[in-house]
Specification:
The chain is of the alpha+beta class. Among the domains are: 117 residues, no CATH class; 82 residues, Seminal Fluid Protein  PDC-109 (Domain B), CATH 2.10.10.20; 44 residues; 129 residues, no CATH class. The strands form 8 sheets. The chain has a 4-stranded antiparallel beta sheet, with helices on one face. It has a 4-stranded mixed beta sheet with strand order 10-12-13-15, with helices on one face. Strand 5 and strand 6 form a beta hairpin. Helix 3 runs parallel beside helix 11 and helix 8 packs across helix 13.
Length: 551
């Protein structure tokens, strides 16, 4: 056969489960392979073929591609399995004279020579050797075993092999009458210094070795005093380094804390700016919402709100043609005049006591006060403040808790904090808020009108039960009616063409109704149907004041 592969060894790692390992080289007989298991600590054990727990079986003998070694017990994890060819260096081929040339036998002999050469090459590859261009006069030792004992193999000044000084060993504490060789190491117990032997000798005298008669035969390796000082200095340096590291860490933490505080302040400032912008937007939205409910003065019924959007139930406007307040019921505009049921309540106004009260309202001072409320600027301000969002916000500010909070802001500690707000960076952010000052001032200027209007007119699905005063108005979105509070209950106002007083029980007495009522300042009465179904019309020189007095 031919031998084309130069492989002579395979190596594997054990895993405590695998038992079969392949060898990829040719072996003529079972004895031509060596199985080695190397432990994790480096101990090598040569295994033997057999059936015992420490043995193996083999297959593929004589095959050019190799075969398999199967262990009885799997090699453990951490162990290394080495399969190497190890052919006996013998020649067993014998040619008989004059016999036919045995080609197979001759080829087997050549094969064995080849694999022996490969085995030797594997061993040579694992040995120390000179490179092809390096030379050495001799690799032969001329020194006998006795002279080589405890000596060092070295190279001399010419690069040739040499046996030189003793190996030397650590001998521990120095002692008298002791044989020391070159390179022996001892400790001087009187100084704790470490010495190395320069000249072989038998010791004598006493310690310290620096003053011993054999002092020239020793060389100082370690000066204990210097080593201690160095160790102390090193420890001090380590302590100082640790202190510096701790200080640096503290400074780092302080810096990070300051950074975090700065970022927090920035975020708070940005939040305040955003809140101011939101408040501005809310105020503008609230004003727009209110002007879409109260449409102001119109000469006729509008078909859309002030934004051009569809009308909604409860919308109001003042009709300048008839000088009456109009309300939208969801499908049409109607005058805010009383219903038949409310007429009875109006008749109550004809009583002398009520007439007296109404006369009191007609005095000049009261009329002047009402005229002030009818001022267009005041009405506009109340329109602005009458939105539900603004009313809610103003009511919130008036609560005792918020008043208490505002008092807290006046404490010295908070004053100090406010001073912090005076920093240039914070001032810049506050300046942004100040841009909305005009909107805030508008609300502050008209605060009384907002509070008054919010309590006087409300839109709801049911009658309000709190904060009630005579003359309050609310639009009932369920019944689509406008109602007023008479001091004890809510009464509906229905559509009609006139405001009049009727006394049905005395229709036959001419002038009866007019005789029962006394007109006051800026108020006049006109009697109709004298003596038959009499009517009494109340006329006011200032219709706005009269409407407020009745309402």
């Amino acid at each position: 056969m031919t031998i084309s592969s130069t492989t002579t060894k395979n190596s594997y790692s054990g895993n405590n489960s695998t038992t079969a390992f392949n060898y990829t080289f040719y072996i003529p007989t079972n004895t031509d392979i060596q199985v080695i298991v190397r432990s994790s600590t480096g101990t090598e054990t040569v295994k033997a073929e057999g059936t015992g727990s420490a043995n193996y079986s083999i297959s593929g003998v004589g095959s050019s591609s190799g075969g398999t070694v199967t262990f009885v017990t799997p090699p453990a994890s951490g162990e290394t399995v080495v399969l190497r060819r190890n052919t006996a260096k013998t020649q067993s081929t014998d040619y008989v004279a004059n016999d036919p040339f045995p080609a197979e036998t001759h080829e087997d002999a050549l094969d064995k020579l080849t694999i022996i050469g490969q085995d030797l090459q594997e061993q040579v590859d694992r040995s120390l050797k000179l490179s092809r261009t390096n030379t050495m006069t001799s690799t032969e030792f001329t020194v006998g075993a006795t002279d080589r004992a405890s000596k060092i193999l070295a190279f001399d000044s010419s690069g040739e092999l040499s046996v030189t000084q003793e190996l030397g060993t650590v001998k521990g504490n120095w002692a008298a009458s002791t044989a020391y060789v070159v390179r022996d190491i001892v400790k001087d117990t009187s100084t704790n210094n470490i010495f190395i032997c320069l000249t072989a000798h038998t010791s004598s005298g006493s310690q310290p070795l620096t003053s011993n008669t054999d002092s020239a035969k020793w060389s100082l390796l370690v000066d204990a005093a210097s080593a201690t000082t160095s160790a102390t200095n090193a420890a001090s340096s380590a302590t100082a380094a640790a202190s510096s590291a701790s200080s640096a860490l503290s400074h780092k933490n302080d810096a990070e804390t300051a950074k975090t505080a700065s970022e927090t302040a920035k975020t708070a400032s940005e939040t305040a700016q955003s809140a101011a912008e939101t408040a501005k937007t809310a105020a503008e939205t609230a004003l727009d919402d209110f002007t879409d409910i109260y449409l102001g003065e119109k000469s006729g019924d509008p078909s859309a709100d002030n934004d051009g959007d569809s009308l909604t139930t409860g919308d109001l406007y003042f009709n300048t043609s008839n000088n009456v307040m109009m309300v939208y019921n969801g499908s049409a505009w109607q005058r805010t005049t009383p219903t038949s049921s409310d007429q009875t309540n109006i008749n109550t106004l004809a009583a002398s006591a009520v007439v007296t009260d109404m006369s009191m309202l007609a005095v000049t001072d009261v009329i002047n006060d009402m005229a002030l409320l009818a001022d267009s600027d005041v009405i506009a301000d109340m329109n602005t403040l009458a939105t539900s969002d603004i009313i809610s916000d103003l009511n919130t500010l008036a609560t005792s808790d918020i008043v208490t909070d505002m008092n807290l802001l006046a404490t010295s500690a908070n004053v100090t904090n406010m001073a912090t707000l005076g920093a240039s960076g914070v001032v810049s952010n506050i300046a942004t808020v100040a841009a909305a000052d005009s909107n805030i001032s508008t609300v502050a200027t008209n605060i009384s009108g907002v509070n008054s209007f919010a309590e006087r007119y409300r839109v709801a699905s049911s009658a309000p039960g709190s904060s009630l005063d005579e003359g309050d108005l609310y639009y009932d979105t369920t019944a689509n009616t406008l109602n007023y509070y008479n001091g004890s209950s809510w009464s509906a106002i229905v559509a009609d063409t006139d405001v009049k007083v009727l006394v049905s029980s005395n229709d036959s007495t001419a002038g009866f109704l007019n005789g029962k009522l006394v007109a006051g300042t800026a108020v006049t009465f006109a009697e109709g149907n004298d003596g038959g179904n009499e009517t009494l019309t109340i006329n006011a020189e200032d219709p706005t004041a009269l409407a407020i007095a009745l309402g």
